[in-house]
Amino acid sequence: MPKLIDKLIRRLPLQFRVLYRQFLLRVIDLESLSIQADIPRFLGQFAGILIMYSAIQGLGLLMGFAIDERLRLLSTIWSVEQRLISTMMLVAGLIAVASWDNIFPDRRDAMILSPLPVRPRVVLIAKVAASAAVLGLAVVSLNFASGTALALILGGIPHFLRITAAYWFTMIAASVFLYGALLTVQGVTALLPRRLFLRLSAILQIAAFGILVSAYFLEPKLNTPAALAMATNHQALEWLPDYWFFALFNQLAVGLPPTFAWLAARAWIGFGASVIGAASSLLLCYLRTMRKTVEEPDLVPASRGLHLASHLGGGLRSAIVFFGFRSLARSRQHRLALAFYLSIVLAIALSWLRSNLSAAAPRSLDANIVIASFMMTVLAVFGLRNVFSLPVSLTANWVWRITQLRSTEKYVAAARSSLIFFAVVPVWLVSAALLLDFRPRLQVAAHLGVLALIGIALVEIALVGFHKVPFACSYLPGKTNVQFIFWGSIVVLATAAVLVGRAELHALSHPAEYGWIVASLLAVFVALLSFNRYRARSAALMFEELQPEVIMTLGLTRDGVSITELSAEAPARLSTTGSERLTFTDSK
Predict the structure, then answer these.
(1) pTM of the full predicted structure?
(2) Could you give the CA distance from residue 446 to residue 198 in angstroms, rounded to a whole number?
(3) CB atoms within 10 A of CB 552
(4) Which of 98, 194, 248, 291 is the most buried if burial means most Cβ atoms within 10 Å?
(5) Residue 250 and residue 394 in one domain
C-alpha cells in the first residue's frame, strides 16, 4: 500500500509536489524556527493528542453504554451525537483560524513564485491540498475511535457499515462547512485594499476564536425530540449549525422524523453554499489581489492617531514592553499562539459564568469559582511565556543583539513587567468582574488578593531560566514531547487547582489560616525573585535555540571496554597491574 501511494504521488507534477510540501510545513512560519527545527515531529505530536482524546472518548462510550442502562435512552444518544459533531466543528473552526490567510497569496508567494514559470492555479491547488491534508488529519485523528464506538452502539454489526459511512460523511461535511464559511469571510475581506485587509484580518481572527469557543460552551442543549420540535426553539436552531448536521447524520443513519427534516435541509444548503463561497473567494483573490499584494505595502506610518508613550521604570523596560504589545497586535502568528491559550481561559470563564447564571444574586463564593480563577491565571501566565519564545523576525533580532548595553538582569525585569501587564492583570480584572455579584464582599476581596499574589509568583516561576528578550529568540519545536507535557499538565494543573481552591476557600473563613497562606505566597515570591535576579547577573541573553551537541560513536570495543571510554579516561588515568605501573601522558 505505501508503495502504491508513493507511485501515485510521483505521477503528480513536480511543481505541485514541491509547493504542496512547502505549504504543508508552513503551518508554522518557517522564519520563526530554529535551524534544527523538526516540524513533522512537532505536528505529529499534536495529532497524537487528538488521537488519544478520540481513543479515551470511544472507550468511554463503549464502557458506559455496556454498564449503565440509562445511557441507552434516546436523549442520551442524541446528546452524545450532538457533542461529537460540535467538538469536530470546533476543531475544524480552530484549524481554519490557525491557518488564517495561509491559503491566500501573501507577499512571499507573490515575490518568489511570480517570476518563476509557475501558474497561479498550481499555487492555488497546492495550498488547497495542503489545507485539506491538515483538516483531514484532524478529522481522522479525532473521530477514528469515537465514530467506531458510536456505530457499534447505534447499529451493531448488521448496520455498522451504513452508520459508519453516514458518520464520516457528516463529520467531513460539517468540517468543510465551517472551514469554507471562514474562508469565504476571509476571501471577501481580502478584496479590500491591502492595508485595510491586514488591519481587519487581525480583528476577524480574534473575533472568530471568541465566537467559536463561546458558541461551543454557551449554546443551549436541546437533546430531546420535544425540545427540538418546540416552536420557541426554532429561532435558536436556525443559528446553530451543529444541530443541522446532527439532523443530517440521523437522516442518513437511522432515519429522521418529518418534523426535523428542515434541519437536515439547512445542513445541505449550508454545505453547498460554503463550498461555492470558498471556491469563488479563492478564485477572485488569486485573479485580482495577487498583484496588489506586491504593489501595496503591508504597513505604512500612521498619519494621525493617538500615540501613547510612557516610562515603565526605565527606557529599556518601556521599549521591551511596547515591543511585546506591538508584536501581539500586529503579528498573526503570535495572535494565533496567544489565542490558543486565551481560548482555554475563555472556555473556563464561560463555563464558570454558565454554571452561575441560573443562581439568584447575590451568589456565595464556592470552591469551583476559586479553582476556575486559579486555572485561568496559570494558563494565561504560562501561555504567554510560551508565546514569548516565538520571534517576530529572525532577520530583525540583530537590533537587540547589537544594542545590548545593559546586563541581562534588566532584560529579565522587562520580561517580568510584560508578563504582569499582559497575563496577570487581564485575568485578575476578568475575575474581579465575574465576582461582582458574589458575597460576602470581604471574602471576594481576600480571594482577589490571593489571586494577585499567585499571579506574580507564577510569573517568577515562568522566568526561571528565561534569559531572552520576548519575541527575539528562535523557536525549536519537536525538542519536547508535546503529548506528555499536554496530558501531564492537565493532570497536574487539575490536581493543584483542586487542592489550592479547597485550601483557600477554607482559609477565607479563618483569618489565621488566611494570614499563613498570604505569608507563604509572599515568601515564595521573594525567594523566586531573588533567585532569578541572582541567575540573571551572570547569564547571557539567548537568541538562538539549538539542540545540545551529541558525540556520535561507532561502538568499537577492546577487551570488552569501549575505545571511546578509554580515550576519554586516558589523560587522567593512573592504574597499577601487579608490579607494573602504567602512566598515561600527553603526546603532541
Answers:
(1) 0.72
(2) 44
(3) 5
(4) 248
(5) no
